[in-house]
Amino acid sequence: MKFFVDTAEIDDIKELNALGIVDGVTTNPSLIAKSGRDILEVTKEICDIVDGPVSAEVVALKADDMIAEGRKLAKIAENIAIKVPLTWDGLKACKVLTGEGNMVNVTLCFSANQALLAAKVGATFISPFIGRLDDLNLDGMELIADIREIYDNYGYETEILAASIRSANHMSDCAKVGADVATAPPAVIRNMANHVLTDKGLDAFMKDAEKAGIKIV
Ligand code: E4P
User: Fold this and answer.
1) What span, in angstroms and rounded, lies between the C-alpha atoms of 18 and 47?
2) I need a surface site. Which of 80, 87, 127, 130 has the fewest CB within 10 A?
3) Which CATH number do you get for residue 154?
4) Could you say which of 62, 83, 207, 215 is catalytic?
5) Which residues are named in the active-site annotation (predicted)?
6) What is the pLDDT of residues 39-87, one digit of tens each?
7) Number of domains in the chain
8) Which region holds residue 164: left if phi is over 0, alpha if psi is between -120 and 50, else beta?
């Protein structure tokens, strides 16, 4: 499973990219607003750091306007994935923009039917939102599994990019049900390294090392 980092914070992207675990980046208007930076400027900086796809989201609602914005975003760098919402207009924009050779990430997906339409119009990525479904007491992971089954039934090449990830467990669950990509905030990715028994075991080893006066360098 590929890991994308869901942020527009440059320091986090640099740190995780240096570890070699970042296969791409996703942003959205809320994350850009949180960064306090200009969208074109910060997106260019991200594209210069990361080799993989960097999703940048349109803010228009009409297909023609989304297409114009998408074309402008695509000029930032070769690894831009234009992000469009899963609306009827978004699907029209996806069809045109993928037809022009761009990567397109269709976002705000909350149902298998929406994912089916995105695959039909040739989306590069479909972004089903796990956390926002879980917030409504629905099962976000079940949606990922349903889309996996449907795409595999027909050999659709659209990649399932699991989004709205809120916990480290979401990451391993996504890998179990076969998401192609999972995008998570930096804190969630770091939290994947944590386990209470690791902390407890390390504490005991450190105490014993100190007692025995073990020194290596
Ligand atoms: C990424 O592509 C999505 O925009 C993001 O994962 C949404 O996450 P949220 O539901 O935590 O805002």
Assistant:
1) 14
2) 87
3) 3.20.20.70
4) 83
5) 83 (schiff-base intermediate with substrate)
6) 999 999 999 999 999 999 999 999 999 999 999 999 999 999 999 999 9
7) 1
8) left
